[in-house]
Amino acid sequence: MSINWFPGHMAKARRQIEESLKKVDVVIEILDARIPYASKNPMLDHVIGDKPRVVVLNKKDMANNKETDRWINRLKAEGVYPIALNGKEPNVLKKIENTVVEATKEIFERMERKGINPRAIRAMIVGIPNVGKSTIINNIAKRKVAKTGNTPGVTKAQQWIKAGTKMELLDTPGVLWPKFEDESIGQKLSLTGAIKDNVVNLDDIAIFALKFMQEHHLDALKQFYNINIDENTEIVEIFDAIGQSRGFKMSGNEIDYERVTERVIYDTRDAKIGRFTFDLAEGAE
Ligand code: GDP
């Protein structure tokens, strides 16, 4: 699912995306709505320059609605064109098309003033692994395009595909590397499935998830695992309570912490406990 990124991959991805950028009017950057800060590629701002940018907060069905609204406002203030989507829904094309038209309005008005014949708006999709790039391309192209999620950058044989009546899209997305300089960012990326579990310590991810829920979504956590805890309960006691409640025991009636850890990670990742946004719009850099 994910890639191990090396400096060579990163340089290649950057070069390929710079090349593709020359061909498009607008960039559609896909972020995971649960982690709009952590799922941003750190280099993209530099290479996009002042090209219009649509920012999709994808997987909105798994994120917290109020936080998504706050992120939309924040991104608008930053001068990009944000939308929140569930990439699997049928209305994705219309929503992206409307936003792309808005983002490129000035460019096309200028072309019209110069007497240049109108043409389709050219766009490309970029983002780190697992944010939903292929899902969105397939959805708006109304057909299955090649899965390239494991290739850094973009593959060579790019083609334009028609997306609706106003837009043409490069059929392969630009695959960017995730941030990995900061431990808590790594934990968020892992918790949402953007990087491999073996890159980050599983115990740390589960602890991060439990602390986050204890602080921000205590009731959801209590209800989902049917446990009696409060805001001051020690993390190890929360592990115990979940192990007890779920019957995750080893011989000798010891709690099976490994199973608790895995369960917590998967239940959080699949938004079973609730719809959480781990990067709060206020406070994320
Ligand atoms: P890519 O690596 O960026 O191309 O990501 P994919 O398109 O392969 O999507 C990664 C996973 O996220 C897949 O299991 C998709 O089915 C799932 N996915 C994509 N978009 C959404 C969405 O909006 N909501 C939910 N719940 N899942 C999504």
How does this structure look, described?
By secondary structure, this protein is α/β, with parallel strands linked by helices. It has two domains: 169 residues, 3-Layer(aba) Sandwich (Rossmann fold); 69 residues, Orthogonal Bundle (Conserved Hypothetical Protein Ylqf, Chain: A, domain 2). 42% of the residues lie in helices and 12% in strands. The chain contains eleven helices and seven strands. Strands 1, 2, 3, 4, 5, 6 and 7 form a seven-stranded mixed β-sheet that branches. A hairpin with a 3-residue loop joins strand 5 and strand 6. Helix 7 packs across helix 8, helix 8 crosses helix 9 and helix 10 packs across helix 11. The longest helix has 15 residues. The radius of gyration is 21 Å and the shape is elongated. The model has no long low-confidence stretch (mean pLDDT 91). Required for a late step of 50S ribosomal subunit assembly. Has GTPase activity. Its main location: cytoplasm. One of its GO terms (cellular component) is cytoplasm. It comes from Jeotgalicoccus halotolerans. Belongs to the TRAFAC class YlqF/YawG GTPase family. MTG1 subfamily.
**Cα-atom radius of gyration:** 21 Å
> The CATH topology of the largest domain, please?
Rossmann fold
- At CATH level 2, the architecture of the largest domain is 3-Layer(aba) Sandwich
Instruction: Give the distinct bound molecules.
Output: guanosine-5'-diphosphate
The CATH homology group name of the largest domain: P-loop containing nucleotide triphosphate hydrolases
* Average pLDDT for all residues: 91
Strand-residue proportion:
5-15%
Query: Strand pairing plus helix content: what structural class?
Result: alpha/beta
Number of domains: 2
What global shape is seen? elongated
**What percent of residues adopt helix (DSSP H or I)?**
40-55%
Poorly predicted runs are none
**E-strand count:** 7
What is the element string, with H for helices and E for strands? HEHEHEHHEHEEEHHHHH
Distance between the termini: 28 Å
Q: What's the CATH C level of the largest domain? A: Alpha Beta
Counted by DSSP, the helix tally is 11
Summarize the main sheet.
7 strands, mixed
